[in-house]
Design a protein that fits this description.
The structure is a single chain. The protein has a single domain (about 5-130), classed as Roll (Endonuclease I-creI), CATH 3.10.28. It has helices spanning about 5-15, 40-50, 80-90, 95-110, 120-130; strands at about 15-20, 30-35, 55-60, 70-75. Mean pLDDT is about 80; it is low at about 130-139. A four-stranded antiparallel β-sheet has the order 1-2-4-3. It is of the alpha+beta class.
Length: about 140
């Protein structure tokens, strides 16, 4: 299996999710790619590791539906890596773009020191949320 940038982008659009976990210790985001094919996710993980990411793979079974196949989650937890992932592999699906924009807005609100050019990132996130960016580009 040859893994490319477009392949990762498609995997996230088709099988991915971006989730905000709220907790007393602080809010944090998780980027997931979920599938029943462990070898497939391990290939994606290897590719991401070669690019400097720190993915991990978890196995889970839906206890209420034991007849379902076992599933695996490739997860990114580091905020900086989630942001870089969204820049390198911008989602094309509108629902994923909206979640990515929500993450960018959250990231901007939770930074103490803002890097140069952050206002353009904020404007792009707002454009996505308002539906004015129909070209499938996040950043």
């Amino acid at each position: 299996m040859k893994i490319t940038r477009g392949y990762i982008q498609g995997a996230f659009d088709g099988e991915g999710s971006l989730i905000l976990n709220l907790s007393k210790r602080g809010d944090h985001w998780r980027l997931h790619i979920t599938n029943t094919d462990l070898v497939w996710l391990q290939g994606i993980s290897k590719y991401l590791k070669s690019k400097g990411y720190h993915p991990r793979i978890n196995e889970w079974q839906n206890e209420s539906k034991p007849h379902w196949k076992r599933r695996y989650n490739l997860i990114l937890l580091r905020r900086s890596e989630i942001k870089r992932f969204l820049q390198e592999f911008p989602p094309l699906m509108a629902a994923r773009q909206k979640k990515a924009a929500e993450f960018l807005l959250w990231d901007k609100q939770h930074k103490r020191l803002m890097p140069k050019g952050s206002d353009s990132v904020l404007q792009q996130a707002l454009d996505i949320l308002e539906g004015s960016n129909n070209q499938g580009r996040l950043l």
